[in-house]
């Protein structure tokens, strides 16, 4: 942990303003050559002025020794606050994407000088112009904002004027006010959860903070990283050099965390971040709800611009203030002591200093603030108290600029947008940042979100767009290719059969494009894509009876020799091109409901097989983990302790005992009680429905909508699925022969690996010890789940525990979906690559939380059969989809697993099924309790 006293050693500062302003390649356009910083270097940009400063330099280049181009990079670290030295390497790259202009950082950032990363007020249309020294011409921006070119445009003043030395002092006082809850709430989260948050930051990472400011809160994260003994390179980005230097010195010294300052703007920071190679994991910090100074569209564009600089697996921690009580927000920005008022009004004095003349008389203005509930933002203005004219005289030309002000006119200086949880969830969805963690203050007013750039992103489906879009297909293909071309190691694993009841992996590489090609040819009445014989060997896989594998439904013939993988991949690419042509050529291929249904079926078929192939991979000892996506337990650093043994440092997670929810179906809305939905394939060809592309699709076993089924009696259902630890306790409690933990024990889940009496859980990352995976839901067969329920019933006189029926579980899931909004943390859709419980179940002892679908599918006690025998109509496009499994051996499974696509996971009518004694699927269970 850092020392409690301020360091006397001057910090390392990297001058991005000078470096990227005069770098010839900076203006070279999107094709500029990119050089990468690799993991074994500690970087500074080319021509980068790296030095130290100890003086009150007012941010002036002339007053600090920042004009030194290092010939001996190690010298910088000899004088910095780190005991270890890395080489400093030039950065000559810039992002290949167009930069956003810098936006101002408002007072929501309790890091005071983070506000100074601004260029202009966010409601000014004026483009920022660089000054000669690589900064921005703030005086020109002030005049331009007060005298906009378009007549009638409201006048504004750049937020940056608030942050002179005195303004920073006032702002620091604001952050200590009880009324200004944002800072206190963020500190509360970091004091409570910093250890858990930094578990997601890999060892040997670069951490870049945008608008670092005072580092009062950041030090809590840095101390947690130090406790974890992670080697971290931390960069604080800010535009106020004095505050940046002062803040870094206040950190003291760390043993493992190295610190340096980045003097520059967001755009220059964007370029700096893009300079790191793919082998360097990165985490961005954006604290203090600084996002609030951007409007909704600007926020999306800003996150999207930085996302392009991130590599797969990189993180971003973002603080966001919610849409809270209007009065609380109002007082937070207009405190009774008047410190906020003084802070805002001081900006007018600063304008006079910047312009070098008495331009504004602050006595003719007052601070006016309001919270706009409809828009969800706090608005700060200067209100003109008497009509007058502002006069600016150019010192070089003596030309006058006159600006007329009307009495009561409002001049905006600051906006602070607030975000509901639904809005922030949608923001991350729109920018394709996968949320992997959320930490909320005890008052539920403020959140820290941890989002990650992932190799693909499955967006939430739109209700009235049942046809998968081209973008959705592309993301699905990314996922399929990652799994089949990276996690299946070629060529050694292609013919591997980790589950004897299934084909080798190679079959599925051919099956997926073949199924799509067959469906396209049947609907469009076109020939198969060559080689056409693939339709003979790859059309349908096998699903033998677990008890008697010689019994199997009809399937494609198994060749003596499978085709080469290169031939299969080439075929796959041709079929994909064929589909894209169908999606993009409405003249040749007008999109009818029948064609759209075929596309829907092929999409979900591939998504289902993606999950199938992954549960096969979990059974293989040869599986490569998903590239660049580290599991939290793998992110921790192993360190040598005093006995020279390896000790893993990871925040322990515990799960509270499951609670029970009482549900009385008789009291619920009828839509929650119904099963299935109406979607008859034969209607596709009728005149009424032929062009219907908005009604949802479903598989044949989901039709029809059943409204007359007798209601279940009132029941109690567990809040979450049974965990590995709980299932292990059952095995040990019933272990009469001492063979409970033998792999051959029929009650031992196939998801477990048992070696020397120790249990690990199989995953795509390899075996995971119970100290990590014990709190995951247990993946097991239906028969094994029933065994647990029967045992538990013996432990409680007069109470019977069973698996829920399909109707009961459907009601519970629909009730949750109707009452709990999405948070972006749902445990499906590859938001994580292992079957964890949802975050709230892991933390909360509250009896009000019911874990929804995800993690693992939920077994039911209902045999798979038509919802309504009279209403069931076999699919004409895919007649073998359901009917082969109406055999009393397959049981209905509802919900989703971590590897389930959102299109499937969020359609409550979707019905999955597996043989009751099939042990390999990603399926767990929760119980119902009956008196």
From TrEMBL:
It comes from the Eukaryota. SUPFAM superfamilies: C-type lectin-like, DinB/YfiT-like putative metalloenzymes. Residues 151-452 form the Histidine-specific methyltransferase SAM-dependent domain. Keywords: Iron, Methyltransferase, Oxidoreductase, Transferase. Residues 110-124 have a biased composition (Low complexity). GO terms for biological process: methylation. Signal peptide: none annotated. InterPro entries: CTDL_fold (IPR016187), DinB-like (IPR024775), DinB/YfiT-like (IPR034660), EgtD_Methyltrsf_superfamily (IPR051128), MeTrfase_dom (IPR019257), SAM-dependent_MTases_sf (IPR029063), SAM_MeTrfase_EasF-type_put (IPR017805), SUMF_dom (IPR005532). Residues 494-613 form the DinB-like domain. Residues 696-929 form the Sulfatase-modifying factor enzyme-like domain. Residues 25-64, 97-138 are annotated as: Disordered. One of its GO terms (molecular function) is methyltransferase activity. Pathway: Amino-acid biosynthesis; ergothioneine biosynthesis. Residues 25-39, 97-109 have a biased composition (Basic and acidic residues). This is DUF323 domain-containing protein.
